[in-house]
Amino acid sequence: MTEILRRLPPHLAVFLGASTTGYALSLAGVTALQARAELDLAAARQPAILGVQAVAARTEALARSLAAADSHYQSDVAAYAAAGGRLAELDAALAALAGSVKAINGVTTTLPTSVALPRVARQVASGGAPATSSTTGASGAP
């Protein structure tokens, strides 16, 4: 290649060198412009990226909260199911008690509202002090 350059007239060699230099400088300028545009684009996208990251963090927190709520719900369901059996037993006992109260109420409505009791005569005997036959010996007399 250097042989070809030696055979070229000097003004063509200078032109070739200058055009190569100009092309290199224009590529460097385009690269600098593209790098600056990339930086500007990244800076413009930064709020959106931060927003997406914040939404992702809130989504993870919400998922944890939902998992905790599901755990509490499942334990409440188990407690309700356990209480449900006892409630059925209590309901049956209350139904039996209601039947007993109804039977008692039926019997009480057949009873008379008042009962005539016989009169009781009472005698009070009035008399003196009761007779005694013993001595205590407390006063020294037999």
Q: What is the beta-strand fraction?
A: under 5%
Q: The biggest beta sheet, please?
A: none
What is the count of β-strands?
0
Average pLDDT confidence is 84
* Alpha carbon gyration radius: 58 Å
Taken in chain order, the helices and strands follow as HH
Secondary structure: helix percent: over 70%
Q: What is the count of helical runs? A: 2
Shape: rod-shaped
Low-confidence stretches: none
Output the structural class.
Answer: mainly alpha
Distance between the termini: 172 Å
Short description:
With 142 residues, the protein is an all-alpha fold. The chain contains two helices and no strands. The termini are far apart.
Written account of the structure:
The chain has 142 residues and is mainly alpha-helical. 75% of the residues lie in helices and 0% in strands. It has 2 helices and no strands. The protein has helices at residues 2-7, 10-110. It is rod-shaped and about 175 Å long. The N and C termini lie far apart (172 Å). The model has no long low-confidence stretch (mean pLDDT 84).
